[in-house]
Amino acid sequence: MNKNKFAPVPPMGWNSYDYYDTTVNEEQVRENANYMAEHMREYGWEYIVVDIEWYSHKPGTMRDQFQYIPFGDVEMDAYSRLQPDPERFPSSGDGSGFKKLADEIHNMGLKFGIHIMRGIPRIAAHLHRRIWGTDVTADMVADPSSICKWNPDMYGVRNTKEGQLYYDSLFQMYAEWGVDFVKCDDICNTNLYTDNPYSARHEIEMIAKAIQKCGRPIVLSLSPGPALIEKAWHYEKYANMWRITDDFWDNWELLKDMFQRCELWENQVSQGCYPDCDMLPLGYVGKAFGDERKTNFTYEEQKTMMTLWCVFGSPLMIGAELTKLDEMTRSLLTNRDILNMLTPKCRPHQIRKSENEAIWTAYNAETSERYVALFNLADEEKKLEVSLEEIDDLPEKVNTFELWTKEREQRRGGKIEEMILAHGCRVYQIQD
User: Taking Cα atoms as reference points, which of 6, 1, 3 lies closest to residue 171?
Assistant: First the structure.
């Protein structure tokens, strides 16, 4: 188990990817941070994460051909470390990196995060740029046989003393910037190498060491998935979050599939260690992909997603443009009763699953709070029921409080039964 205390509860925040892809700029980050500070911070939302290619010049300008421009121009310092693009992040133009933006976000009472690709910039290796504090050059650290399947920016880093020094210098710089959260990509599952999908294992360990050395608590999130269940012990030892799915979007079949993924990982949820169901594609998403739209999920499907993520104990990262949230969407994200389940002290367990339904429970031994969630996975309205004995040998009569409708009811006959809309759910706190 990860011994750091950087994430005592599953991180909750906003990530720029689902709406902005590679194109987000400083003003857009600031606007979303302001919204979170004003409307959501009191509910536990606190991380503002700048996702992929913040260092790229003119990203998104060839979107009809490439998501990531092949060997595009990037901003980099003399020591092989990528820097924010000053055109999109003007506060970095004096060489201070993300420090000024991070300071601003900290002053709002929030935390600041960035996305990185594992490895060292290919251009640094080609130009024989130095590694900070050494006479070693990037080409001596880079492993050209270790690349990403879908992004052309980086080579892997060799498992050497000099390779560790590169990562140490990188995270020392992030600490100076004030970074609180790093999402590292192409590392949880290096899916180009089908015979060795955990080929970056040593880089996870090197990054974890660099974080410990940098003197700042930085939450480490690993992407993409699906994470490898047989490596659960390794994720738990070196990271705080790891993706259990590939990119998750607003598609019912992807959401339905998350039930079996959560079933696989339910015993790996613990304080500081969180299997990650990926971002919440609610509200407006897809602008930089040329498909700005309100989520394809129905209202019932959105409740199902929020309920599953919370009863399971996944981190919560919003992918939407926050300034466009309507009241209904915001109410989904700020339901205190639902969010109260999001603690590693509340142990999740799936007690039943079929093609058309799933039943989950969660129990907080510290507070004695007990929950049961009934999910209708069918395409039509359906009656679901669960016996109180099946939940946990409860008495024949209990009181229930439904966390979405706020309805209270006394249940007799030793069971809970309810008509539930297609793709919808009901989730109860049980009071003996």
Answer: 6
- pLDDT tens string 284-339: 999 998 889 999 999 999 999 999 999 999 999 999 999 999 999 999 999 999 99
Please count the other Cβ atoms lying within 10 Å of the Cβ belonging to residue 267: 13
In angstroms and rounded to an integer, the radius of gyration of the C-alpha atoms of the chain is 22
Separation between Cα atoms, residue 2 and residue 373, nearest integer Å: 29
Which residues in the chain come in under a pLDDT of 70?
Answer: 1-3, 432
Residue 332 to residue 352: CA distance in whole angstroms: 25
Sheet holding 142-143, edge to edge: 120-121, 154-157, 142-143
Q: Return the closest-CA partner of residue 244 out of 279, 278, 198.
A: 278
Q: Which of 175, 252, 160, 260 is nearest to 211 (CA)?
A: 175
DSSP at 144: T
Distance CA 383, CA 95 (A): 61
| pTM, rounded to two decimals | 0.96
Report the distance separating Cα 156 and Cα 190, nearest Å: 11
Query: Beta 111-117 vs 181-185: how paired, if at all?
Result: parallel
Q: What share of the chain is helix, strand, coil (3-state, %, to 5)?
A: 30, 25, 45
- Give the pLDDT of residue 4: 83
Per this entry, what is the length of the chain?
Answer: 432
pLDDT value of position 397: 86
C-alpha 135/C-alpha 246 separation (Å) is 39
Identity of the residue numbered 169: S
pLDDT score, position 2: 65
- The burial of 358, by beta-carbon neighbours within 10 Å (0-12 exposed, 13-18 middle, 19 or more buried), is given as buried
Q: Residue 48 is inside which H or E element, if any?
A: strand 47-50
For the record, the structure tokens of 413 come out as: 């006959």
Q: What pLDDT does residue 414 have?
A: 87
Structure tokens that stand for 98 in this block: 């993300």
- The conformational region for residue 423 under phi > 0 = left, psi -120 to 50 = alpha, else beta, is left
**Cα–Cα distance for residue pair 19/357, rounded to 1 Å:** 31
Residue type present at position 118: R
Q: Which residues contact 304 (CB under 8 A, 6 or more apart)?
A: 255, 375, 423, 424, 425
